[in-house]
Amino acid sequence: MHMESTFTEYVYLCIRWLAYAYQFLMLSPESAEKMYHKCIDFDPARVDCKIELSKLYTFSGRHDLAWIWAKETMETVKSERAWTHTFMYDCVTPIQVSRAALNSMAKDDFGNYNPHQFALGYYFMEKAIDQCSQYGTVVLEPEDIFQQLEGAYDFSWSNMNNGKTFIADGGCIRDVPKTRVDRGMIGLLTEAGGKHLYCDQNSLETGRQ
Questions:
Q1: CA dist 98 to 40, 81, 144, Å?
Q2: Are 30 and 37 in contact (CB under 8 A)?
Q3: What DSSP state is assigned to residue 57?
Q4: What is the pTM of this model?
């Protein structure tokens, strides 16, 4: 059983690294996209290739698809299998969810603005800032990624709200009252986010970070 699990892990990693090679070394986003999908099909319980596919769509300007796959990662429960890299859950995923949430609303001068999506993206930005600090440098991200995200959210909110600064709710997303968000978004907040490390046990008990 252990050998089978190890073999499966190696196959998964080979597919993922081949997708990386296509994207970053051979500069072939089309081939990288195909390999990321193969990676997801091989093991849909993992977020690694889902979030990297979302990032690929972000970097190629396909922000609607980037947001679709960012949401998919939020609906993927963290696996307890051996060698699962929590860095993908703790750090990479929150960064991309935050970035994809904002980019998908920004088209046509924020014609797709959704206040709940904005709050969700801002929340995940704060989670990323908090959780990525334990890992140091975030691989394959700009050194100033958090300054970029904070600046983008503050600038966007101020432009839409006469210079007022956006302040996120300090409560855990699982505890957001249902009356404050639409049904689709509360489903993501409670059924997806709460199953990840974005809400620790203390948050679930007290409703605070």
A1: 21, 26, 15
A2: no
A3: H
A4: 0.73
